[in-house]
Predict the structure.
Amino acid sequence: MSNDNLISIESPEDPLNNLLKQGVRQLLAQAVEAELAQLLSEYEERRDEQGRPVVVRNGYLPERTIQTGLGDIDVKIPKVRDRSNSGIKFNSKLVPPYLKRTKAIEEFLPWSYLKGISTDDFLETLQSLLGVDASGLSSNTIGRLKSTWESEYQSEGSAA
């Protein structure tokens, strides 16, 4: 038995935010499926020697998380199999490979830095906006982004 008298307090769930995130997840899944259906329809006439379609669905890539203004959204991107070995791949235009956060979040980071949020305060600020599960935005990450922004600024200044 523990003598601790500390009580863990869970933050209350926001039902509206949860509903919005669920809607975004479903809408995104439908949109990506529509992109895939378009790709498959482009190649539906092509067949191999056995008469099978050359490009077919082949499961999903591992689920990944995208940071949005609503918080983290889990997405599953379907994959295709190219039986002709022509190099046909499916890459979603909505969720391109390696996308980690939406453009709004990407634009928010340098703006916040310019407005005076210190590197060490970024994590706390972003967790309050994106939820405590916001990952990938440690002070080290912000420091690397800051270096990139500074070099981009200097290269634009020298080009002018």
Summary: The mean pLDDT is 81. The CA atoms of residues 47 and 53 lie 5 Å apart. The first strand starts at residue 55 and ends at 60. Helices lie at 15-42, 103-114, 122-130, 139-159.
